[in-house]
Amino acid sequence: MLDRAGIVSIFWLLALFGSYCQMAPAAAGGGSGRGQLWEAGEGRAYRLETTVLLNDARGGRDVGFRVTGVVTAGCVWQGAGDKLLRLELTEPQLHIKSRKAPAPEGFVAHSSALDGLDGGVFLAHWRGGRLEHVYLAQGEPPSLANLKKGVAGLFQFQTQDTELTEKDASGKCEVTYKTIDKYTFEKTKTSCVSGKKMPYILHPDQLMGAAVRSRREARYVLTPDMSALQSAVMEESHEMTAVLREEAGNVVWARQEIVLTDSAVTMLPVSGDTVDEAVRELEATSGRTYQKQSLVLDREAATCQEDCPSLAKLVKENRGHLLADHLGTSRSAAAFIRLLGVARQATKEEIKKVLKSSKNGEIVQQLSDLVGATQTAAAHQAAMSTLQLGSDDSLDRSERYLWSLSLGSHPHQDVIRDVLTACRKHSEALEAADDGPGSKLAETLLLTVAAMANRFARLPGNEDHKLVGDVKSFLEAGLADCKGQACRQRHLRALRNLRHEATIPTLLRHALDGAQKTSVAAMKAVRSFPPASWSDHVKKAAEQIFFQVGRKYDSSSRTLSLDVLLESEPRKELLRDLLRWLTQHREPAYEVKQYLLQRLRQLGERGGGLADALRELERDEGALLRNYHALAQRGLSTAFTRPFLRHPSANGSLLTVQEVSGGLLKRGVVDIVLERHGTAQEMFSLGLFAGGMGSFISSDDDEPAGDDEPEEPANAGMEVVALGVQVRPFVFFSGQGDLMGHVWSGTASEKTPAFQMIALLQDHLEYIPLQTGFVAELSLVGAVSFDLSGQIQLSLWYKTAHSLVEKNAGIFLQGLAKVDSSFVRSQAEFTLATEAKLNLESDVSFSDKVAMCMQLKQPDSVIRHNVYKVERIPGSKHRLRKSKYKVIQVAGRTYALNQKNNEMCGVIHST
């Protein structure tokens, strides 16, 4: 038995527990009497106010609208935990922003198509605080149906602290309820996913994408007797910004509120054993037919407005901006963006008509860029029906289309399969040793299907897709069947575009055992993988190649292997071996030694583990580093990094590597790299290669060139990697006769376009259903117009050479947030436009001692950031437009390379 003290203790525990239970609102629908929600036959009236505003990320004057009305809600049937709610929206009215409003930037009522819409009765199936379905009148206009779903969602709530999953107008969301006091609680929704199939485009490269941040919160208050909802206020915001420039973005903000009025509404109960029977009885008495629907919103069908021209008309209006003379400018990139949206909606016949029009002959290659970027099945069918892949005359146009396909953000499966079929058809041409039209097309097809498969694999859920495996198997089988070195190199370049980790063993085998150029091509492919993919097996192979274990390797294979070793957080013992190799007197490859020294300095400037390891080695073995043999290397090879962009969103760097052999450039690379929070993206890479021109050099050096490599035929060319995708190398000349033909004819002395195209830069699209009953569209599309030109002047008499490479890139970025319905349309848009230029000049004198001077220049430029906000009412003259403009000046610069280059420039330009 309990003593007196025990009984008192139990009494106080029960009293405390009872007071705690009273602090939380009664469970939804639980209890009886005063705490009962949704008593059958009772209803309430609420004042509804829904506001949607759109703005740019930097703030300013917004645009938007407000919808008001009266909502009545009550229960007409209940049974076994289920209730059928009768809801009605009356007196809907549109309000717009106006200077005539009582308050600045306030709202005034305006006539619209909403006035003619019958709000009407709709039903909701309620169970334990959840809305299972809504029942809308058959033939309900989509705008009104969505508005009613948004209203119904406000009456879905739980009155206890809990976490659960709910479906409403926003989609399927993770929901958290938190009690504030006896009558008040808050609701937070996260990770909302719409069950409806809406278009969605995600760029596989993080830095090229958009950042979308969403917030959804609601606050509920019950009446003092807890028998009804006193008020509900929901707020949400969705901000989309460009990852590379966070101040460029748009915001959609929405607020929905219902407040209880003094009006009581009588609800006539209906009978029936189930919800469906109750609905049928209401249909019989009202003469309406109801359709069961989920609360998730439907996207309204796109309707053409007064500014929706056809593709043919839009091409005609922008034809002048797409001319080849405007490549490399933001003007052509902007025209490309204006055409892209229309092209994605065009039919096969509409696209064919544009491509075949004789009036578009001067811009047909730029239109090929556009059709490839469209990435629809209709566009691909139209392109393939107008291209003649086997014709030499259409090679340039075919390559432009295939390049554009390879840079697409979301390749279509059927298109990849079709390109793979074309690869099989033209595979025999890959064995050709020359660089004729057939082999060029075959290689471009190969590179394209590999790049498309890579981007397809990086989209969510596609990593292990069978299509990716089919492409990988085709490339590896083709490589195994190759009989000539040219064929092997083409397949290795394709594997570089595929970048599938399962191909690394194949690449290493050709890097270790292949002929000179084959080994180089294989190591370039290995080098293109992110450092996280470099296993111990890769590092061991790189050591074997660099230290030439078992055989001699081409100096480019060695320097590429060195890049792998240095960029994979090398262990201290390996760094010690590299430094000791640097001091060896008998090592003849002084250019490779110079390259090692330059790369150590370049990577050491970044900081991190390599810099720490070098400092530790310097502290422990200072004599190994601080001596003439280590620091005073011969040779002209160089490597350096120079910043060209400092911004809170991202930093940009120019990475330059110049590998010299025998006094002339053998392999040179200039990379434009953007970095954000540890993630790097190679935007553009220009690689130059040359060989076999040692006979043009006369030097009084006592030592040989040092690489101890067999002389090869004279050759030179250029490799371009755009947005991570390598295109077919451009060969300037191959063989002594070809070289002398250029020298005597002067064909290379005039500035000549080498690589031109317009490509997609950013590509993001998503639709966000709002709780208010509207659907927001967020899009970010960017394009870059490339113009890479160059010229070479060579004088055998004066023994000098001068080269100029100009990289012009016009960039145009458009971000759009809009909310469309049949009765109001609002949108906020921003554009960014700039024209970036980079000039690389080099002068070489080989009359006495070889001297080479490089100058890297970036001219002045501007960035134009414009914002436009528009609101209009269909069928009305009302049109509100707000704009603001900003110009950002970017000062040009000439990059300081290194002291040796400065000395060489002084020697060359002093004569």
Describe it for me?
By secondary structure, the chain is α+β, with helices and mostly antiparallel strands. Among the domains are: 308-363 and 377-386, no CATH class; 387-499. Strands 1, 2, 3, 4, 5, 6, 7, 8, 9, 10, 11, 12 and 13 form a 13-stranded antiparallel sheet that branches. Helices cover 32% and strands 35% of the residues. It contains 24 helices and 28 strands.
Core attributes:
alpha+beta; 13-stranded antiparallel beta sheet; 911 residues; disordered N terminus
List the helices and strands and how they pair.
Layout: H1 4-23, E1 42-56, E2 63-79, E3 82-97, E4 107-110, E5 121-127, E6 130-137, H2 142-153, E7 162-168, E8 171-179, E9 184-193, E10 210-222, E11 229-242, E12 245-266, H3 275-286, E13 290-293, H4 311-318, H5 330-345, H6 348-356, H7 364-374, H8 377-386, H9 395-406, H10 413-425, H11 437-457, H12 466-481, H13 485-498, H14 504-513, H15 516-528, H16 536-546, H17 555-566, H18 572-582, H19 590-604, H20 609-620, H21 622-625, H22 628-631, E14 638-646, E15 651-661, E16 664-676, E17 679-691, E18 715-722, E19 725-726, E20 730-734, H23 736-745, E21 752-769, E22 775-795, E23 800-820, E24 825-845, E25 851-858, E26 861-872, E27 879-890, E28 893-895, H24 899-909
Antiparallel strand pairs: 1-2, 1-12, 2-3, 3-4, 3-5, 5-6, 6-13, 7-8, 8-9, 9-10, 10-11, 11-12, 14-15, 15-16, 16-17, 17-18, 18-19, 18-20, 21-22, 22-23, 23-24, 24-25, 24-26, 25-28, 26-27
Main beta sheet: 13 strands, antiparallel
Helix content: 25-40%
Content of β-strand: 35-45%
Mean pLDDT: 85
Based on secondary structure, the structural category is: alpha+beta
Shape: elongated
> Number of helix segments?
24
- Low-confidence region ranges: 1-27, 29-34, 698-706
From the alpha carbons, calculate the radius of gyration and give it in angstroms: 34 Å
Span between N and C termini?
A: 115 Å
The count of DSSP E runs of length 2 or more, i.e. the number of strands, is 28
